[in-house]
Sequence to fold (67 residues):
Amino acid sequence: MSDLAKDNKSITVKALKEYLKSYPDENVAQIYLEVLDNFEDDELVPDAILYNLGFSKDFLRRETDES
Fold:
């Protein structure tokens, strides 16, 4: 999994699933919720998924720095 989450060091699948429950675009949320079912809840979300949802590298770095 670490190969897929090079920049993301703190956002887990479980946390993203919770976030997607209130995501403004229900169709997009449903697609990503289905994709995330292929991962364990405690795994880090792959960078590509986060980038597609609009998270930036700077945001991911900031999340890591605050931890």
Summary: The helical segments are 13-20, 26-36, 47-52, 57-66. Residues 26-36 form the longest helix (11 residues).
